[in-house]
């Protein structure tokens, strides 16, 4: 503040100070108080009364230590705060503080030292916000997240054990059907032969599904964050899929892609699944045109994988990401309905999101956001 030049200026500046003090007194969301050098309370406002429960008459002249727990006072936390504010000018602290009725609240405190013209500390301004509700909400969210993580681990363990144990009786079944066919084959007629085929196909399909389940539950068990060059990744995927690309006479256009921090093997699987689907779910007689793009956003990369294929009806846009969910007969398009479930799990391992924009007969665009991660 500038020094007043005239008596009129001085009056003017005193008037402003008074108005400021009056305004501070009326503030209800923040406890604003002035302390002397030793931390004795000199002024009190409505917010302080609301948050801490004392009236101005009860509290003025008392030391601000009354807002601290016995343990904090024993460690001289209030004294330390005053000394640090005097040394640094302004400091911010958060912690549990004590109200008049001895209940606790989570306070976010800003303490600013006030100096005289010679620079000596003559007191402090203290602003406190009651963040108890936010603090409790954060704690609940953290607890929920931990609970979900625990449940997920249990579930994955269950899927792993169940699918592992299912393999054995299945193996017995297929072995004995083979034995039966081998040793007693000539005794069976054509119809019995057809029944055998159905049993064998069913068993093979079940073996496939169990393998998928095992793969799904293993996904993410041994993962390592590293820098992944997505451009190189897409090139190697295209080379792996070259036969399917050639057979489908597909054109794949990949725009410049970033290098990002992620799980390389899993990202490879993600893009490979999406490209394979874009090749597979093509319109009969129309060569697939596939485009891969990435756009930098504030906190993440947004990838778009677009095709000109058969598209997806709006009511199935969520369902396709669930395990074993398919929209077509196996005769029309082969598959197990696991690819997109894998994609979703991989994207979520990165803290991201996957969704689809599509219209039947007009192609699909899969949108993936991958938040920026660091090593
Ligand atoms: P799968 O490919 O083994 O059937 P996915 O989990 O990869 O299993 O896909 C689930 C279903 O989502 C597919 O059966 C298909 O109906 C639909 N789908 C996936 N990708 C596309 C796409 N690019 N275009 C149209 N439909 C798609």
Write the layout of secondary structure elements.
Blueprint (H helix, E strand, L loop, with lengths): L6 H20 L3 E7 L4 E3 L2 H7 L3 H4 L10 H5 L2 H12 L1 E9 L5 E12 L5 E10 L1 H53 L5 H29 L6 E5 H11 L1 H7 L2 E4 L4 E5 H17 L8 E8 L3 E7 L32 H11 L3 E6 L5 E8 L4
Parallel strand pairs: 7-9
Antiparallel strand pairs: 1-2, 1-5, 3-4, 4-5, 6-8, 9-10, 10-12, 11-12
The structure holds adenosine-5'-diphosphate.
In short:
This protein is an alpha+beta fold and 375 residues long. It contains 11 helices and 12 strands. The strands form 3 sheets. Strands 2-1-5-4-3 form a 5-stranded antiparallel beta sheet, with helices on both faces. Strands 7-9-10-12-11 form a 5-stranded mixed beta sheet.
Describe the structure.
It is a single chain. With 375 residues, this protein is of the alpha+beta class. Helices cover 47% and strands 22% of the residues. It has 11 helices and 12 strands. The strands form 3 sheets. Strands 2-1-5-4-3 form a 5-stranded antiparallel beta sheet, sandwiched between helices. A hairpin with a 5-residue loop joins strand 11 and strand 12. Helix 6 (132-184) packs antiparallel against helix 7 and helix 8 (230-240) packs across helix 10. The model has no long low-confidence stretch (mean pLDDT 90). Bound molecules: adenosine-5'-diphosphate (ADP).
Could you state the order of secondary-structure elements as H and E?
HEEHHHHEEEHHEHHEEHEEHEE
Q: Overall mean pLDDT score?
A: 90
Proportion of residues in β-strands: 15-25%
As residue ranges, the low-confidence spans are none
The hetero compounds bound to this protein are: adenosine-5'-diphosphate
Order of strands in the sheet with the most strands?
2-1-5-4-3
- The N- and C-terminal alpha carbons lie at a distance of 47 Å
What class would the helix/strand composition place it in? Answer: alpha+beta
Major sheet details: 5 strands, antiparallel
Q: With helices defined by DSSP (H or I, 4 residues minimum), what is the helix count?
A: 11
Percent in helix: 40-55%
Count of extended strands:
12
Radius of gyration: 34 Å
The global form is elongated
């Amino acid at each position: 503040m500038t020094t007043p030049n005239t008596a009129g200026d001085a009056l003017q500046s005193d008037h402003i100070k008074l108005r400021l003090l009056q305004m501070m007194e009326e503030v209800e969301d923040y406890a604003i108080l002035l302390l002397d050098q030793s931390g004795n309370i000199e002024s009190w406002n409505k917010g302080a009364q609301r948050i801490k429960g004392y009236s101005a008459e009860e509290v003025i002249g008392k030391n601000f230590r009354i807002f601290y727990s016995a343990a904090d006072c024993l460690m001289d936390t209030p004294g330390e705060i005053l000394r640090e504010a005097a040394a640094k000018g302004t400091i911010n602290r958060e912690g549990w503080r004590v109200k008049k009725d001895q209940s606790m609240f989570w306070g976010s405190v800003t303490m600013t030292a006030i100096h005289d013209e010679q620079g000596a500390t003559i007191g402090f301004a203290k602003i406190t916000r009651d963040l108890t509700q936010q603090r409790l909400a954060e704690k609940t969210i953290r607890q929920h997240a931990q609970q979900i993580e625990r449940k997920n681990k249990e579930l994955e363990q269950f899927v792993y054990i169940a699918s592992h144990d299912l393999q054995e009786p299945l193996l017995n079944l297929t072995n004995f059907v083979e034995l039966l066919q081998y040793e007693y084959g000539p005794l069976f007629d054509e119809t019995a032969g057809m029944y055998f085929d159905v049993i064998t196909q069913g068993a093979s399909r079940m073996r496939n599904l169990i393998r998928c389940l095992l793969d799904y539950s293993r996904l993410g068990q041994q993962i390592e964050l590293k820098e992944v060059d997505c451009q190189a990744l897409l090139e190697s995927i295209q080379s792996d899929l070259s036969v399917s690309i050639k057979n489908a006479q597909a054109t794949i256009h990949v725009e410049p892609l970033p290098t990002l921090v992620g799980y390389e093997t899993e990202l490879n699987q993600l893009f490979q699944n999406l490209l394979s689907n874009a090749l597979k779910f093509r319109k009969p007689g129309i060569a697939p045109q596939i485009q891969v793009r990435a756009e930098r956003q504030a906190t993440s990369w947004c990838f778009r994988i677009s095709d000109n294929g058969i598209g997806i009806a709006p009511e199935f846009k969520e369902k396709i990401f669930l395990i074993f969910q398919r929209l077509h007969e196996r005769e029309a398009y082969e598959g197990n309905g696991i690819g997109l479930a894998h994609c979703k799990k991989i994207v979520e391992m990165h803290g991201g999101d996957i969704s689809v924009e599509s219209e039947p007969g007009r192609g699909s665009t899969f949108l993936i956001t991958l938040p920026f991660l660091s090593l």
